[in-house]
Structures are given as structure tokens and as C-alpha cells.
Amino acid sequence: MNDKMASFSAKIAKPRDEARPVVFVVYPDIVLLDLVGPLQVFSHALDPVMKTNGYVCSVTSVDGGMIDTNTVVSIPSEHVSHSLEASIHTLVVVGGDGANTAMHDTRVLETVNALAAGAQRVCSVCSGALVLAAAGLLDGRRAVTHWDDCETLEKGFPEVKVEIDPIYIKDGNVWTSAGITAGIDMALAVVAEDLGRRAALHVARSMVTHMARAGGQSQFSPVLRRQLLDSTGRFEQLHHWIAENLGGDLRVEQLAENMNMSARNFARLYAGQMGLTPAKAVEAIRIEVAQDLLETSDKTIRQIAAQCGFKDEERMRRAFMRTLNVSPTDYRRGFRAG
Questions:
Q1: pTM confidence score
Q2: Architecture of the 3-206 domain
Q3: Residue among 57, 126, 150, 308 flagged as catalytic
Q4: Which pLDDT tens digit goes with each residue over 230-252?
Q5: 123 is catalytic
Q6: Hey, what CATH class is 222-335 in?
Q7: Which of 90, 241, 277, 293 has the smallest set of CB atoms within 10 Å of its CB?
């Protein structure tokens, strides 16, 4: 090892103020936000005891140099040799369309395995899970990736226990996250584990992220799911009307009247296109609005239940348990904005 590399490794092994070294692995055609989202989280996180940066970050690749992303912006990277003998606290493999090539690149996989061997924690963002799986680091573990890549992960690596819904999963010292912005949620959870929840909330606030989502939340937005199912916008106005009239009469007859249809024809067409009954759709929207109020308002659970049309706390509690497997009280405790 030359003097320059020795000096660099020494700095990483014992960074200033004992900041935790985080190494990001990149390759051509990564998603830029997969990198800069978590990078921003770790760069902003402060150690509450030392009052200094909690992490020191570096970006590495097999050959070093400029790496193309899926945008017009390319990013610089260090040669992997700079990190191979360093003490790594958290290793993060970034995702992107390039993962489909990287997962078959022997040099990339050898690099990831070598870095992971010296890391206390290994993470992937989005389709970076495909690279971890190809390196054998997810065998026997629960894992998640972008919903569009879950089938590829499941079919290509049967030893991996793929879960499509969570925004991130922690299995031992290996963390995987879902699509793109979920990498920010995972990074915030890592900061909370290392430095405490207050430190994570401070970063979330500085990034104007209104909350730190827990891993059990779905990577699928219910609103986006409805929009995808209702691609022609046939029921878009109805869904807005429901959300604005949660305390009113939302029986199927009223919904049908809003659509200028008979109740029977409306119920049949709605269920056929949206995949659930109108009554279930109303309950889902009530839950979504209640979630937002629990996260952002000081209203009591009783007030929220009344505002959202549940009539009483017990009905809202049962709806939350059926849909989210958590009570309104526990939901507020876990997801309340800092």
C-alpha cells in the first residue's frame, strides 16, 4: 500500500471525533436520489453526545472516477482500494437500472463481498438489493426492494425471503429498502438506532421531511394505488368528494347518486375496476385521513374518529387493526411528526 492510500485508510479507520464511516458503493446508471438521499441524511446527522458529525461518508466504485447516473449529473467516486482495508461502520449499495448489469459483474460482486466482510452493517437502497442478493448476502434473510424488482429478486434468488410491501426491512445487520425515497427512511432509521430518535428527527426536520416513517409502513401510497387502478379518472372526483364528506352519509346509494348511476350498477363497476367494494373504499379513505390527523394534529383520538366518520373510538380502532395491524394510539406514538 502506498503512503497516500495508507494515510487515507488511517483517516477512515479513526475519523475525526470517532465519526462512523459510511461507504456507498456505486456503479454506472445508478438512480441519483438513491445515493444523495441517504448521503444527505448521514452527512447531516449529529452525535448528541459529541455534538459533532455522527458519520463520515465516502463514495466508492470498482475503478473509481466519474460515475454516470440516470440524470445529466455524474458523480465522482474513489477507487475501491481506498476502502478495502478501512474500518466500515455502514456499507450502502445504491440502486438503479445499472443494478441489472452490476448483479452479473464478478468484479462488482467481489468488491461488495470484500467490503461487507469488514462492515458492521450492510444496506441496500432500491434495486441495490439485487446486487446484495447476487453477492449471497441476502440468503436466508428477509428483504425488500422496489416493487417493480421484487419479482426479479424472488425468482432469481429463491434463498431470499422477499417481502413486497415494507419500505425497509432490518434482518440482523443487513438492511434493505424499497423504491428510491425509502432509502431516506432507512437511513433515518439507522441514525435513530445509532444516535437516538431525537437525532433522526432533527435530520428529518432539517430535510423538511415531515416524519420518519417506520419500516412496517407500505411502500405503496394508497392514493397512488387508487390512481393507478383508476387510470381514466372515472372515480377521481368521487374519491375527492368522499374525503371531503367523511362525516356525511356515504352509503353506496349516496355514492351512486354522486356518480349519476344506479346503486347496483355503480357497485358492480366500482368493484370491478378498483378491486374492492365501495364500503371498503370509504373505510380506506377514512383511515388515510385519520392517519394524517394522528401524525400532524393535536386533536384527540375521539375527535379524529368523529371527524373521519367512524362515530366512536372503538370503530376506528377496529378499522386500524384490520388494515394497519396497529391501534390509533400506537400509530400516533410511532409516526407522530417530531
A1: 0.67
A2: 3-Layer(aba) Sandwich (3.40)
A3: 126
A4: 778 899 899 999 999 999 999 99
A5: no
A6: mainly alpha
A7: 277
